[in-house]
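User: I'm preparing a small set of examples for a lab meeting where we compare how different chains pack in three dimensions. I only have the primary sequence for this one, and I'd like the structure in token form so I can line it up with the others. Please keep the answer compact; I'll paste it straight into my notes.
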Amino acid sequence: MKKAYFAAYKRMEELIAGYPEFSQLDEALYIAGMSSLRLSEGKGKQGLPKSPPEAVQEYSTENLRDDARGYLSRLVKEFPESKFRREAEDALGQLGSAKKVSGAQ
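Assistant: Understood. Below is the structure token output for the 105-residue chain.
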């Protein structure tokens, strides 16, 4: 990846949502997951967009990590033969389990 993580993340989000039968969905999930993980670590050439106060949570570290976890978990589950699976599993190990919020439904 060329470290344009935010642009890659947003493009892959759109592709995954708009084309669920895309022939290279495993790669799209991988790029979305890894870009989200890198953004949560503050890496990349692009900064996150300035969010209005009511939307600041959208790109919080925890939300980005949750997104990464979701995309990479889906890759591992739905594409067990993918060439991206091993790296996705490694990243999931780095991410650990999702935080549990008390009182959440």
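A couple of notes for your slides: The longest helix spans residues 61-78. Confidence is low (pLDDT under 50) at residues 100-105.

User: Perfect, thanks.
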